[in-house]
Design a protein that fits this description.
This is 2-polyprenyl-3-methyl-5-hydroxy-6-metoxy-1, 4-benzoquinol methylase. GO terms for molecular function: polyprenyldihydroxybenzoate methyltransferase activity. It holds the Pfam family Methyltransf_11. Keywords: Methyltransferase, Transferase. Helices cover 37% and strands 21% of the residues. Strand 6 and strand 7 form a beta hairpin. The strands form 2 sheets. Strands 3-2-1-4-5-9-8 form a 7-stranded mixed β-sheet, with helices on both faces. A two-stranded antiparallel ribbon has the order 6-7. The longest helix has 15 residues. By secondary structure, it is an alpha/beta fold. It is built from 10 helices and 9 strands. The protein has one domain: 3-Layer(aba) Sandwich (Rossmann fold).
Length: 247
């Protein structure tokens, strides 16, 4: 666990900054990064989700849960913060899609299980006690199922600020674990190897790693974002969970 941080403290921080207006602004397809760099690859890595039972682990305001349901999946969203799970449930009440939202900390033992696929998007780098959360995700998938997780790329976490200041990206302390203070709440830097070694230790087989770049047509209309076409600010990993469970 990250020193001096607990999951409870992180949840309180996210809960205190998650305004209803901010949640509503990204309720359809997420923020700019999700819309243009992440979502497309999440759906490609999951494949055809129609008829599948999918866990959206750390679902936030529920935007991805709703997009999955619109593609024919039966979706359960898990979210620990009062503000976000309340927003997601209210949205479901107003526009029913059959999504079930559960308020829970992924790092705590649970009876989640039997999912064809599990997606954990932009969550693990915000969780101090992240290894139990990853174990929950893997255990929730059926043997031989799919687990997709996405992160802010550990090698390029402060890409926008670095590019504005230097016209290039600089990184140091890469091998350490430390807090990254953000505008809404803190993330935690860990090297990429920490995440990949953990899924390997859990018996998963890596299927694909994606480092998406911004499409040329978006760069043409938003030239100030050219850096996102040259360096990957985000990372997606798709794994196959173990073919059998050992006692």
């Amino acid at each position: 666990m990250t020193k001096e941080w607990t999951n409870e403290a992180a949840i309180r921080q996210w809960n205190s900054t998650a305004s209803r207006a901010a949640l509503a602004a990204t309720a359809d397809e997420g923020d700019f990064a999700k819309r243009h760099l992440v979502n497309e690859h999440v759906f490609r890595l999951l494949g055809n989700v129609a008829g599948q039972r999918i866990l959206d682990a750390g679902c936030g305001n529920g935007y991805l849960s709703r997009m999955l349901a619109d593609r024919g999946a039966t979706v359960v969203g898990v979210e620990p913060t009062d503000a976000m799970v309340s927003f997601a449930r209210d949205h479901e009440a107003d526009e029913p899609r059959g999504v079930e939202y559960i308020q829970a900390d992924l790092s705590r033992p649970s009876d989640l299980g039997g999912f064809d696929a599990v997606v954990c998007s932009m969550v693990l780098m915000a969780v101090p006690d992240w290894k139990p959360a990853m174990r929950t995700c893997v255990a929730a998938a059926k043997p031989g199922g799919t687990f997709v997780f996405t992160l802010v790329h550990p090698a390029f976490e402060q890409l926008a600020a670095g590019w504005r200041e230097h016209g290039r990206y600089r990184v140091d302390r890469y091998l350490e674990e430390y807090e990254l203070v953000g505008p809404a709440a803190s993330d935690f830097h860990r090297p990429l190897s920490a995440y990949l070694n953990e899924v390997a230790a859990l018996g998963c087989r890596i299927r694909e790693v994606v480092e998406p770049g911004l499409a040329p047509d978006i760069v043409e209309s938003r030239p100030e974002l050219e850096y996102l076409s040259r360096l990957p600010n985000f990372l997606l990993v798709a794994v196959e969970t173990p073919p059998s469970r050992h006692p």
